[in-house]
Design a protein that fits this description.
Order of helices and strands of chain A: HHHHHHEEHHHHHHH
Strand order of the largest sheet of chain A: 1-2
Largest interface: A-B, 41 and 39 residues
Structural class of chain B: alpha/beta
Distance between the termini of chain A: 21 Å
Strand content of chain A: under 5%
Number of strands of chain B: 12
Helix content of chain A: over 70%
Shape of chain B: globular
Structural class of chain A: mainly alpha
Strand order of the largest sheet of chain B: 6-9-10-3-11-12
Number of helices of chain B: 8
Shape of chain A: globular
Helix content of chain B: 25-40%
Radius of gyration of chain B: 19 Å
Oligomer: heterodimer
Largest sheet of chain B: 6 strands, mixed
Number of helices of chain A: 13
Distance between the termini of chain B: 35 Å
Radius of gyration of chain A: 23 Å
Amino acid sequence: MSPAGKGAQRRLRFLPRVGARNLGLLIALAVWLVFLRFTAPFYFNFDNYRVIGLQIAFIGIGALGTSLLMIGGNIDLSIGSMMAVCATAAALAARDIGVIPAVLAGIAVGGAIGLLNGLMVWRFKISPLIITLGMLAVLRGIAILMTSGYAVTGVPDQFKILGGSRVFGLQSPVWFLFLGFVVVGAYLHRTTTGRHIYAMGSSRDAAQRVGINIRRMTIGLFLVNGLIIGLVGLLAASRLGTANPTFGVGFELEVITAVILGGVAFSGGEGSLGGVLIALVLIGNIRNGIIAVGLDSAWAQVANGALLVVAVAIDQVSQEQREKYRRLLAMRERTAQEVAGTDHASHAKQD
Amino acid sequence: MVEVRSVSKYFGALQAVDQASLGVRAGEVLCLVGDNGAGKSTLIKVITGFHRPDEGEILVGGQSYSSLTTLQARQLGIEAVYQDLALCDTLSASANVMLGQEPVRLKIGPVKFIDERQSAKRAGELIGRVGAAVPDLQAKVARLSGGQRQAVAIARALVQAHRLVILDEPTAALGVAQTHASLALIRNVAQQGVGVVMISHSLEDVFRVADRIVVLRLGAVVLDTPASATNRREIVSAITGMDETVGAI
């Protein structure tokens, strides 16, 4: 191939990265924003952006963990309750022990629960959906037991710094979101381990045969997800200066919606953090926009659930399309080869 | 040179492999044939380290082993490509070829950044070496045809396999034309100086590609011959164990 041709190919390589999927999300976002421009002009101001940013931040940081898990072919449904347990643990530690132990407690508790989930999913070869669905209920109950059902109050002011401060006009959770996307994105898209996560989600068998340690990776991803959710819980408790065992009800649904809408395949092995980020911005604007337009906030919930269904449907249909395309390709190749078949074989034998 | 000597393998009371010996030289295509249950797969799995032989030894590069682990076999340059290919459909052809062996650009502690350019280059070379045409190495493997997918799987095996590539029924799922291409590809692999063991049920394919033919029956090697010194009839009677005048099919 000529060098010019190679250059063109390299440039073309980045086209699928932006992808039809992400393009679709961006168009949907643009259409929605134009609609809001006419129906709710006051929507567009910096204070509102900050509200949206904060909402996106918590869902988005959670989405980092779920993206990692789901690309690797797993899922953790217990993150909503896990976040409540971590927030409660952090707030209790802040009130009774100190600020530093509180920070450690929030993240460590998350890590411990994540690790437990990972070990169970690995040991009992049952769908992680069922195991972590059970944990969703278990952990919610534990969060309530930890405080006898009451909110934890009376945390020291220093505890509120981590999640409550602003840096260069942006709230700290938003910074954590940016930082998280850069770090996890680099890890997932640029490193060997990231590549192996995709491989594992795509075909466990293939990954195993080339010597990738599936066990360590599965458990490791659940652990990382737990640590990330620990951070979410900690930030929530710190930002609000309190923790409530009802924190994060429905959180898992919001996170999974963003992740799947962003193009991560439910079956694993596919998707990118860029897509998830676009999906987050879209979701944030839809939720906020619905209220800004003057609709009942319950519609935001309807929209969220509908988005999940739509996202899964798109995922399924595009997979069917690909399957169709492959069959077409195979058929075309077969006919092409049958025409030139004997010719090709004799040629191959000559050299 | 990879050799097994007097290898036996029992599964309970069943003797799957019975004092079997065979050797593959570099650059040679050895076809292993036999009826279902003749012990072909078991023998292969002894070489790739999935099965531990109960008797006998395995010689690789002059070194004798009573058994191999899968890791050992891979480190010694022995790789198998199974019929299902075990590819990652959602990854690119180049990522599949280099999977587990990605060239590293930068290493910070345990974090290794992939050198994508080097990876694509190496994958291209390897696919070129097997003589296959994969138009776009960055395209997902899901978009490739059956023949191209096989080329990717064999190229991946070649990353590690400097001694021996084992192909289990490589042409079973392919059409006539693709089979021709696939056999040409297998010859190319042998020409790189790598030994090839191919399991096949198709005697037509076997005679088209083999340097040597080894016939297994009830776990024992009943015939080990250069392909040029035998014919279909002899092979068939060795497989079935019937006299050639009776067993002429």
